[in-house]
Every structure is written in C-alpha cells, then in structure tokens.
Design brief:
The chain is α+β, with helices and mostly antiparallel strands and 150 residues long. It is built from five helices and eight strands; from the N terminus they run H-H-E-E-E-E-E-E-H-E-E-H-H. It has a four-stranded antiparallel beta sheet with strand order 1-8-3-6. A hairpin with a 2-residue loop joins strand 4 and strand 5. Helix 1 packs across helix 2 and helix 4 crosses helix 5. The radius of gyration is 16 Å and the shape is globular.
C-alpha cells in the first residue's frame, strides 16, 4: 500500500475524516506500518500502551481476560482503531487485540496522536463519540448478561 492509498484509507476513519489532506499525508508518512499474522497478538491486556493503531486491512478480535479465561467481546476491521484509551488515560492496555486473519495496521505514536488532537479539535469529538458508542455497547451486553443470569 502506498502513501496515497493510506491517506485515502485514513479519510474513511471517522476520527480522521475532518483532518486536512496534508496532515493525513504527514500522519501516514510518520506512522509505522505493522503487519500481523493470523493468531498473532497486536497488544496484550495489562501491558503499557503508548501507541494506537488503525486497521488498514484484515480482522482482529478484542479479548478480555476473565477468571475463566479470555473472552471475545468485539471484532474490529478496516477503518477501526484501538489503543486510544491507553494513550488518553495513561493506563495499561484494557484488552488484548489478536489478529483473526492477516492484519495490516498503521501504528500511531502518542506524540503524533496528541499533536493531531491539538490541531483538530473535531478529532477529539469523534473520539469521544466512538468511546461513548463502545461504552453503550458494553452496557447493553452487561444488561443482557445480567438479565440472562437472573
């Protein structure tokens, strides 16, 4: 995938949709492209996190450690992003991300992430929207699990 293709893909990611072309080109150029094989972990729950990822291609599972082992709680695919919570909150990774099939990602450093958020406040709004959607989805799953257990 060349630089222009990566820029076009980044335009399709909601948090970057309002970022100007030149900044997306800089982001694509300064970010590291990282590929993962099927079954390979991208990051592990509890590990420190100083980068976020955008999925350029492939599918990954979001896994949470429980007393009974890991459980899959979500699926991520092209245009999805993850790792922003560790960056925003300075907390360890909140989940394990594992490639279900060959996965192509763009790895974005904490410094570049904050630079973009500072220059494009709309990006911060889009991140909040995505986090709110994820929280609501989690709450819905908890309500369903509680109802099923009762």
């Amino acid at each position: 995938m060349n630089l222009n293709e990566e820029v076009e893909l980044l335009k399709g990611v909601p948090i970057f949709s309002k970022v100007e072309q030149a900044k997306l080109k800089l982001l694509a150029f300064t970010s590291e492209r990282v590929n993962f094989a099927a079954g390979q972990e991208v990051c592990h729950q509890g590990d420190p996190g100083d980068t976020m990822y955008v999925i350029l291609g492939g599918v990954a599972d979001v896994l949470i450690d429980t007393a009974n082992g890991q459980i899959a709680v979500a699926e991520m695919q092209r245009n999805s992003f993850f790792g922003e919570i560790a960056i925003l909150c300075d907390v360890p990774r909140t989940a394990t991300i594992k490639a279900r099939e060959p996965l192509s990602t763009l790895k974005i450093t904490k410094d570049m992430f904050y630079r973009l958020v500072a220059e494009f406040p709309q990006m911060a709004v889009e991140i909040m929207r995505e986090l709110a959607h994820r929280l609501e989805d989690t709450n819905e799953k908890l309500r369903a699990a509680t109802k099923a257990a009762a």
